[in-house]
Amino acid sequence: MAILVFIDNWNMVEQPLIFLQDAAKQPLSLYLSKIIADEKGVAFAAATLYMMPILLIFLYAEKYLLEGIRLSGIKG
């Protein structure tokens, strides 16, 4: 549950957009949507940095996530 909540909070766009008026305090998820097409290198670097924490947490806790799904009894 904690993994899924962290991923949900990490990907927030609407709440920071509403509550944070200062552009310097806004998260990277808002910056990614504002990058123009000419800055492809910057966009790739920002997207890679943005994705790394989620990927590392998933790889670390994958066995716990799968075990929780298995114990829930959901077939599919």
Task: Kindly describe this structure.
This protein has 76 residues and is an all-alpha fold. 72% of the residues lie in helices and 0% in strands. It is built from four helices and no strands. Helix 1 runs antiparallel to helix 4 (40-72).
Report the average pLDDT across residues. Answer: 83
- Pick out the low-confidence regions: none
Output the structural class: mainly alpha
C-alpha termini separation: 19 Å
Order of helices and strands: HHHH
Main sheet characteristics: none
Number of continuous helical runs: 4
Helix content: over 70%
User: How much of the polypeptide forms β-strand, as a percent range?
Assistant: under 5%
Coarse shape:
elongated
**Number of strand segments:** 0
Radius of gyration: 16 Å
